[in-house]
Write a structure and sequence with these properties.
97 residues, Aminopeptidase, 5-stranded mixed β-sheet, 2 helices, 39% strand, N-acetyltransferase, Acyl_CoA_acyltransferase, transferase, GNAT_YJDJ, Gcn5-rel_NAT
């Protein structure tokens, strides 16, 4: 099971993934005003590649955006590609990809 922890301040934040208590990945973002944030980096530890860690962090970011009325700008190649593949999460995009 993947657990995602979210940290946030007025300038930036992150979604950090853990599997069985072990660090598995990190997604970082920067605020672009009060209503949107830019996902700028996603990394998954080698041992957890292909296990859905990146997608779980992205879905946590989407859930956060939906619950708080925020929009996402996906600059990170992983986030951008995932948004392009999954129409169900595109409602939080600033501009549809």
């Amino acid at each position: 099971m993947i657990e995602v922890k979210h940290t946030n301040d007025e300038k930036r934040g992150s979604f950090e993934a853990f599997m069985d208590g072990t660090h598995a990945g990190l997604m970082t973002y920067t605020w672009a005003g009060e209503d949107r944030f830019i996902i700028d980096h996603t990394e998954v530890d080698d041992a957890y590649n292909g296990k859905g860690v990146g997608k779980e962090m992205l879905h946590a970011a989407v859930d956060f955006a939906r619950k708080n009325g925020k929009s996402i700008i996906p600059l990170c190649p992983f986030a951008k590609a995932t948004f392009q593949k999954e129409e169900a999460i595109q409602d939080v995009l600033v501009n549809k990809v």
